[in-house]
Amino acid sequence: MKYFFYLLVSLLILNGCKAPQHDEITIFLAGDSTIADKPYRTGNPEKGWGQVLPLYFNTGVRIDNHAVNGRSTKSFIDEGRWELLVDQLRPGDYVFFGFGHNDAKSEDSTRYAAAWGDYTNNLLRFIDEVRSRQAIPVLTTSIVRRRFDSAGKLIETHGDYPDAVRRLAKKKDVVIIDLNQSTFEMVQRFGEFRSKNLYLHIDTTEYTHLTANIVDDTHLSAYGAFKVADLVVAGIRDNFPELAKYLKK
Questions:
Q1: HEC readout, 186-211
Q2: Contact, 43 vs 210, CB < 8 A?
Q3: By CB atoms within 10 Å of each CB, which of 14, 31, 51, 225 scores lowest?
Q4: Tens digit of pLDDT for each residue in 193-239?
Q5: Sheet hosting strand 214-221, strand order edge to edge
Q6: What is the CATH number of domain 2-17+27-244?
Q7: Where are the alpha helices (H) located in 17-160, listed in sequence order?
Q8: What gap in Å lies between CA 110 and CA 74, rounded to an integer?
Q9: How confident is the model at residue 41 (pLDDT cuts 50, 70, 90)?
Q10: Pairwise CA distance, residues 56 & 241, whole Å
């Protein structure tokens, strides 16, 4: 059943990846592995929420996913990925940002961006450059990692990064979809055992090519990707009626 589910998701997404039409609104996604498109090799169970987001929209809105595994705001800029994205913007397009997981890696100079320093400054640059193209920036906070303490309480692991995004959203009057808060509530509600389904907890019996079980509490399963995409879409419905009218019923 799980194999069939992944195949179905793959076919639906590929069917939705059409060339942009002149009158389409484009939602650009910039971020890390929790958002990125993932390959389908050997039934790869990992998915990003941006990968399934096209399935929520009717004709008229196109998703252009620039998110890539392992990227921070710093490496996204340094590798030229931001320049490539912003050069494609047209008036009325949207850019959803989702960074923070890798910006916090202080041991890696190629990615580290301090929450109240370069991380905030990089997001500020993104916002200003998007607006200079008459497009609409949208901030998202990092989804939670699945980490419970001995009492079964979910632990927040992202430090100051979510608060840095929240403060910037207020300062620049930018819509924020607070996935850190909403996924925290969801994972806590699911509980320590059932929340494993949202992340990559894969047994070797499920995939013959695996030599060891996967226990990954950061990256999303296909089910988890859809559940987080549900939260993103709820944010779209609440804040962007001009986009919500294109959502499937």
A1: HHHHHHHHHHHHHEEEECCCCCCCCC
A2: no
A3: 14
A4: 999 999 999 887 777 777 788 887 899 999 999 999 999 999 999 99
A5: 46-47, 214-221, 199-202
A6: 3.40.50.1110
A7: 49-52, 73-78, 81-86, 120-132
A8: 7
A9: confident
A10: 15
Q: What is the CA radius of gyration of the chain?
A: 18
Extract the tokens encoding 13: 């997404």
Give which of 63, 7, 8 is closest to 36, Cα–Cα: 63
Distance separating alpha carbons of residues 24 and 100, to the nearest angstrom: 30
The answer to whether residues 100 and 160 touch, using CB atoms and an 8 Å cutoff, is no
Neighbour tally for 114: CB within 10 Å: 15
Q: 33 Cβ partners below 8 Å, 6+ apart?
A: 46, 48, 67, 68, 69, 70, 101, 218, 219
Question: Residue 55's closest CA among 215, 220, 232, 241?
Answer: 232
- The CA-based angle 101-107-109, given to 5 degrees, is 90
Write the DSSP symbol of residue 153. -
Chain centre distance of CA 223: 14
Centre a 10 Å sphere on the Cβ of residue 74 and count the other Cβ atoms it contains.
21
| pLDDT of 17 | 46
| CB of 97 closer than 8 Å to CB of 138 | yes
Hey, what are 41's tokens? 């090799």
Whole-angstrom distance, CA of residue 129 vs CA of residue 73: 14
Residue type, 178: D
Domain definitions of the chain by residue range = 2-17+27-244
| Residue indicated by tokens 């997001």 | 123
Q: What is the pLDDT of residues 84-114, one digit of tens each?
A: 999 999 999 999 999 999 999 999 999 999 9
> Counting every residue, how long is the chain?
249
